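Extended Data, record Ribonuclease A-domain domain-containing protein
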Amino acid sequence: MELHLPAVVLVLVLAASIDCASYTEFLNRHVKPGMAASECNKVMTDRKINSFLSCKPINTFIKAEGSVVAEVCDAKGTHLADNLYKSVDEFDVIDCVKKKWSISCEYTGEAKKLRVIVICDDKKKPIHFERVEA
């Protein structure tokens, strides 16, 4: 069997990116109790949400404790498919939306109250923010 270096590298990169999906990363990227809409620029920068020369068009923060959000993967969530769960209750969230013509990753915060949909791991912890629904 002949292995090609580019294929091996691709497999290793994909495995590493899957491995990076963790509850800790989810908390960093999407959970901030008490956050105000005016804090988007600071929180996005402090938590290093954007990568070099790449601004996320939108990032949602859930204004609740991580343990409360984690309950969506168990008693406080509705199982949709595979590891996908939708919160039974609405959460206060802040959508940090990139300003249209901003080169430097500037955001405007929008406060909302919505149900969240997350992907959960085998330990019943959220590892990926899928979307929100009214």
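Summary. The helical segments are 5-19, 23-30, 40-46, 66-70.
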